[in-house]
């Protein structure tokens, strides 16, 4: 009897010791520490991103009065609306045009900055980042004053050359031009800084080798710079595409979607339908429509990035 | 030790007495003994106007021993609408929330019925106009109490000198301070001729064609003066009617003489247009005039606020009331109702009107001739006709009389201005009407 008790106690102690050791080992592991360190962020993402995302999916399945489940009813309703397809088209025009120009301007400016001697480069980098660091709601208000119907500084300046007045925000073409212009102004510095970082990581030996082979500046860009920057270009483009598609503040402040809804994007139209017209389920549907478009873009771009990563 | 036995009869009597005492005693005296009350008020444009609300609330709170907290919420970028939407979803938030025009109807299921507050208030302050009933009542139930702060009429604010010089209209003579209007000839036709003349002279009327409320309200009053309804009170779509066609024809002529960038105007653009001295008229509450008094006094002293022109079906003026609603999930509804009665008392109403320099409009019939409107200036009497003292125009809201939940969408999607603009920009009448009809069909979702 006593033996059994001793035996049992020893077994229990051994099990306890093993448990303690394994817990200590688990806590000591780098991955566990990393998990605990990222836990606050994970919780924040669950609270502020995942929960609202799933809640909006739930909202999108309700009727307008939010009293009964209608499944995909709101989506089928949206697909029959002329304005919805106009918003889809405009969002694509806005995001693609703006991202192309941001990437192009970012690329060119990054080269200019890269060629400035290291001493003065910091000043230029700081100045060129200013549009990106000012909160867009504030800087867009300044743009609104520049485009203002009564006090437009642009029209005032153009009047000296006998041009204008241009209805910057009152005509479809100019309104689209203006919102894209402000978005490019705001977003180009982000591309510039990313491309500058990528440029700095391209080994000089490659350029030297290219120079020995007699490559001109265009061939150096095409065969050395661009291949070395491909991943960063892809990731920056994807990131910017997502942010630009989901843009709200610039259009909301400058045009509120007008004239005649011709500058609405998904987010601004979702706000107008969901909050202003009090049709929250339909508004949720409009904003969710961005997900498949961006998911397709993300899959293609990231697949390409990982393929090249594997090749490397 | 003697022990007294409590009989069943004594127990019932004691319970009934203590319950009755608890129910009938409204608030037990003592610091904050009557609980807490959380209020969300609209953040007023006029400097110092919020203080009047705070003072009135504190005065009531001290008397009733309620601990109050007030948040002033700006209407910029729809912060009030966002707050209302969030609180209605969360079933939690302020006890009283000030809401713009359409929101009591939008949240009718979440609002406490206020018939016990409104019926005595109407007896005390006089009848309310049809738009207040349309927006504030549902199935005989008062959803909210009309608030004086923020409520406004968006009538014409004309430049006396420019209208006289270029359109040959003496607005002061037409709407004399202290006397009834002599505005029989002030019709849509006269208005259009004046708009053309002023545009020719380089002082176009500043009327927006955008998607914000000023543009929509103007379109609403013009459509109503032609009897044009996109959806009628029964909820039937009535876009393809002669009255809508007439209103569209009129609007096309008007758009031709408005500033070319009017389609992009927001609610600040018309104010700037008047204050910068570039326009002979805007359709707005006297806020533009009030800013001009500070920034461009030479413009302000030439401004005169007056009634809307009449169309074939009557004279309609855009009216935008604010409301105070009490959430049904609020924690202190009785205190909230008591405060709303206090804020709607005659003395409180007079205070609101005075501190806002006449901008705020009470919804009640007995308060259209307060001395603030008679005395404000320069020029003296410029606001006399602002509160519609002779009831010579019908106060209305765009898209009414459609059922409010449909009308709200017509209003916020700016269907009226958009259809008029489409027609003016080259679409045929039938194309523009077909587009509007399609939109209205979409608004029928329940």
Automatic annotation (TrEMBL), chain A:
Compartment(s): Cell membrane
Entry membrane topology: Multi-pass membrane protein
Location (main, coarse): membrane
InterPro entries from the UniProt entry: MetI-like (IPR000515), MetI-like_sf (IPR035906)
UniProt keyword Heme, yes or no: no
Keywords of the record: Cell membrane, Membrane, Transmembrane, Transmembrane helix, Transport
Domain ABC transmembrane type-1: start-end pairs: 88-303
Regions that span the bilayer: 33-54, 93-114, 126-146, 173-197, 232-254, 280-302
Entry protein name: ABC transporter permease
Gene Ontology CC terms: plasma membrane
The family this protein is said to belong to: Belongs to the binding-protein-dependent transport system permease family.
Gene3D superfamilies for the chain: MetI-like
GO biological process, one term: transmembrane transport
TrEMBL record, chain B:
KW Protease (keyword) present: no
Principal subcellular localization: periplasm
Keyword Glycoprotein appears in the UniProt entry: no
InterPro entries in the cross-refs: Bact_solute-bd_prot1, SBP, TAT_signal
Source organism superkingdom: Bacteria
Stretches assigned to coiled coil: none
Localization annotation: Periplasm
Entries under PROSITE patterns matching the protein: TAT
Annotated GO CC locations: periplasmic space
Keywords assigned by UniProt, alphabetized: Periplasm
Similarity section: Belongs to the bacterial solute-binding protein 1 family.
Protein name: ABC transporter substrate-binding protein
Biological source species: Bradyrhizobium neotropicale
């Amino acid at each position: 009897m006593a033996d059994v008790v001793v035996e049992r106690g020893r077994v229990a102690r051994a099990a306890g010791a093993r448990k303690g050791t394994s817990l200590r080992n688990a806590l000591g592991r780098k991955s566990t520490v990393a998990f605990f360190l990222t836990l606050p962020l994970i919780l924040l993402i669950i609270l502020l991103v995942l929960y609202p995302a799933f809640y909006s999916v739930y909202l999108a399945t309700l009727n307008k009065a939010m009293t009964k489940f209608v499944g995909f009813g709101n989506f089928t309703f949206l697909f029959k609306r002329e304005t919805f397809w106009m918003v889809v088209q405009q969002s694509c025009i806005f995001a693609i045009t703006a991202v192309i120009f941001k990437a192009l301007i970012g690329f060119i400016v990054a080269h200019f900055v890269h060629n400035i001697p290291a001493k003065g480069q910091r000043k230029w980098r700081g100045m060129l980042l200013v549009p990106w660091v000012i909160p867009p709601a504030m800087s867009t208000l300044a743009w609104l004053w520049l485009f203002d119907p009564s006090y437009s500084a642009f029209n005032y300046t153009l009047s000296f050359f006998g041009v204008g007045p241009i209805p910057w925000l009152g005509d479809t073409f100019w309104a689209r031009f203006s919102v894209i212009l402000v978005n490019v102004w705001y977003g180009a510095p982000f591309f510039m800084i990313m491309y500058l970082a990528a440029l700095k990581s391209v080994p000089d030996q490659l350029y030297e080798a290219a120079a020995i082979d007699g490559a001109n500046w265009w061939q150096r860009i095409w065969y050395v710079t661009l291949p070395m920057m491909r991943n960063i270009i892809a990731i920056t483009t994807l990131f910017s595409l997502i942010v630009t598609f989901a843009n709200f503040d610039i259009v909301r402040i400058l045009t509120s979607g007008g004239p005649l809804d011709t500058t609405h994007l998904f987010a601004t139209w979702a706000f107008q339908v969901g909050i202003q017209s009090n049709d929250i389920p339909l508004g949720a549907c409009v904003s969710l429509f961005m997900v498949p478009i961006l998911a397709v873009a993300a899959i293609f771009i990231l697949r390409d990035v990982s393929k090249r990563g594997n090749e490397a | 030790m003697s022990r007294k036995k409590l009989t069943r009869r004594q127990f019932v009597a004691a319970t009934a007495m203590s319950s009755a005492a608890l129910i009938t005693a409204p608030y037990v005296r003592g610091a904050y003994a009557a609980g807490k009350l959380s209020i969300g008020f609209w953040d007023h444009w006029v400097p110092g106007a919020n203080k009047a609300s705070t003072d009135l609330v504190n005065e009531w709170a001290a008397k009733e021993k309620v601990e109050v907290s007030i948040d002033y919420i700006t209407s910029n970028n729809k912060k009030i609408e966002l707050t209302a939407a969030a609180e209605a979803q969360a079933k939690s938030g302020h006890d009283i929330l000030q809401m713009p025009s359409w929101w009591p109807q939008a949240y009718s299921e979440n609002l406490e019925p206020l018939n016990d507050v409104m019926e005595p208030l109407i007896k005390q302050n006089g009848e309310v106009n049809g738009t207040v009933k349309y927006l504030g009542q549902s199935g005989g139930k008062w959803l909210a109490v009309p608030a004086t702060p923020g409520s406004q009429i968006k009538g014409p604010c004309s430049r006396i000198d420019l209208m006289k010089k270029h359109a040959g209209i003496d607005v002061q003579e037409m709407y004399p301070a202290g006397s009834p209007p002599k505005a029989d000839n002030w019709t849509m036709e006269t208005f259009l001729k004046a708009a053309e003349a002023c545009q020719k002279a380089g002082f176009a009327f500043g009327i927006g064609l955008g998607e914000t409320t000023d543009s929509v309200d103007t379109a609403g009053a013009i459509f109503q003066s032609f009897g044009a309804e996109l959806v009628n009170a029964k909820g039937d779509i009535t876009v393809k009617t002669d009255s809508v066609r007439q209103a569209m024809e009129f609007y096309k002529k008007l758009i031709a003489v408005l500033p070319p960038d009017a389609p992009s105007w927001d609610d600040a653009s018309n104010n700037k247009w008047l204050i910068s001295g570039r326009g002979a008229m805007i359709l707005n509450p006297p806020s533009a005039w009030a800013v001009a008094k500070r920034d461009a006094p030479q413009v302000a002293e030439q401004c005169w606020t007056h009634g809307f022109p009449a169309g074939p079906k009557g004279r309609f003026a855009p009216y935008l009331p604010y409301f105070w609603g009490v959430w049904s999930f609020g924690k202190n509804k009785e205190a909230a109702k008591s405060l709303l009665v206090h804020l709607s008392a005659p003395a409180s109403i007079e205070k609101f009107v005075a501190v806002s320099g006449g901008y705020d409009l009470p919804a009640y019939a007995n308060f259209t001739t307060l001395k603030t409107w008679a005395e404000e200036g320069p020029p003296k009497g410029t606001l006399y006709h602002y509160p519609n003292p002779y009831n010579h125009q019908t106060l209305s809201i765009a898209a009414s009389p459609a059922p409010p939940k449909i009308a709200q969408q017509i209003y916020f999607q700016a269907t009226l201005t958009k259809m008029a603009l489409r027609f003016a920009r080259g679409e045929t009448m039938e194309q523009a009407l077909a587009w509007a009809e399609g939109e209205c069909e979409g608004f029928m979702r329940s």
